[in-house]
């Protein structure tokens, strides 16, 4: 009980663990930290372990650029923060908080416990980074086909569960082989990157853009009916067509054809159904002269 706890400089301290208790707690923590390769999962395990030992009420982790901040528990008025690294590799910052000030003995204990976290955390960050790279197209730095398959399945399930609209744009760069043949593959790659930028600038922050393969792109539009999808598709088409591309001092233009398929809230669709309708619409757009948007419904 707190009333029986030792006091240092007016701060109530939790009783120190005996060597046997600390060894047992260390063993249980190390075992638990081997069960997850998710940074958030590891931090939750670590937080749950430290709470009864040091009466910590909150934990805040600021990760690297590709790993968002994580908040656990309830933030207190008193903080202690640590910059985590291992072999000069930065692993982020971690802040513990609670309602009472931390004593020197407790700060030393936190540092000891953190030494058991850094190796599993680094492994998890590396794993998540590799997983993220495996979902990225290396040229355009947007999601690849694998990422698209996962996202489309997830978004369609959400749309059906909450009876929401969902639309899909299938975009193809017109006469892309001609661009490669005339200007070279390096310039063709630049065209793909420029088209990627136009697609992202023309869509909304909530829309998901992927390179499906070759010169084809997919945009998933959540909570969007056919009318809304058509507006976004036309904006993309117009901006691509009006963009002047440069090569060795010469200007040229490219265009895109776009097929649209929509899942309406009262319909039952599979991912394959939705994608096949978008593909048919794209085929019609190319058959009818390219540089146009066709809606399949």
Provide the descriptors you would attach to this structure in a database record.
single chain, 297 residues, alpha+beta, Beta-Lactamase, Alpha-Beta Plaits, 5-stranded mixed beta sheet, 4-stranded antiparallel beta sheet, 13 strands, elongated, disordered N terminus
Write the SSE topology.
Elements: E1 7-8, E2 11-12, H1 19-33, H2 39-54, E3 58-62, E4 70-73, E5 78-86, E6 89-98, H3 104-134, H4 145-161, E7 166-173, H5 176-183, H6 185-202, E8 208-213, E9 216-222, H7 226-242, E10 245-247, E11 250-252, E12 256-263, H8 271-287, E13 293-295
Strand content: 15-25%
What is the name of the CATH class of the largest domain?
A: Alpha Beta
Provide a count of the helices. Answer: 8
What CATH calls the topology of the largest domain is Alpha-Beta Plaits
Helix content: 40-55%
Number of domains: 2
Number of strands: 13
Span of the ends, CA to CA = 67 Å
Which strand order does the major sheet show?
Answer: 8-9-7-12-13
H and E order: EEHHEEEEHHEHHEEHEEEHE
**Main sheet summary:** 5 strands, mixed
Ranges where pLDDT stays below 50 over 5 or more residues in a row are 1-13
CATH superfamily of the largest domain: Reverse transcriptase/Diguanylate cyclase domain
Global shape = elongated
EC number: 2.7.7.65
Catalytic activity: 2 GTP = 3',3'-c-di-GMP + 2 diphosphate
InterPro entries: Diguanylate_Cyclase (IPR050469), GGDEF_dom (IPR000160), Nucleotide_cyclase (IPR029787), Rev_trsase/Diguanyl_cyclase (IPR043128)
GO molecular function: diguanylate cyclase activity
């Amino acid at each position: 009980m707190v009333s029986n706890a030792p006091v240092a400089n007016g701060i109530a301290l939790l009783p120190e663990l005996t060597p046997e208790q600390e060894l047992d707690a260390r063993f249980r923590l190390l075992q638990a930290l081997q069960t997850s390769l998710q940074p958030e999962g590891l931090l939750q395990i670590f937080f749950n372990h430290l709470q009864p030992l040091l009466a910590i009420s909150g934990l805040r982790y600021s990760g690297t650029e590709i790993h968002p901040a994580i908040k656990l528990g309830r933030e207190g008025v008193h903080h202690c923060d640590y910059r985590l690294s291992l072999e000069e590799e930065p692993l982020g910052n971690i802040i513990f908080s609670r309602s009472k000030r931390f004593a020197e003995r407790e700060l030393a204990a936190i540092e000891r416990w953190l030494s058991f976290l850094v190796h599993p955390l680094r492994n998890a960050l590396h794993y998540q980074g590799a997983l993220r790279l495996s979902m990225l197209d290396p040229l355009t730095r947007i999601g690849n086909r694998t990422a698209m398959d996962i996202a489309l399945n997830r978004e369609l399930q959400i749309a059906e569960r909450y009876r929401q609209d969902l639309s899909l744009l299938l975009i193809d760069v017109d006469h892309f082989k001609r661009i490669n043949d005339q200007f070279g593959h390096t310039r063709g790659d630049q065209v793909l990157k420029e088209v990627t930028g136009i697609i992202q600038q023309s869509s909304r922050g909530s829309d998901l853009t992927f390179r499906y393969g070759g010169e084809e792109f997919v945009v998933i539009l959540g909570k969007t009916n056919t009318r809304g999808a058509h507006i976004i598709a036309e904006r993309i088409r117009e901006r691509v067509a009006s963009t002047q591309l440069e090569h060795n001092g010469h200007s040229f233009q490219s265009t895109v054809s776009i097929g649209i398929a929509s899942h309406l809230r009262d319909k039952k669709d599979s991912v394959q159904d939705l994608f096949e309708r978008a593909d048919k619409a794209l085929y019609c757009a190319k058959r009818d002269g390219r540089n146009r948007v066709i809606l399949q419904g």
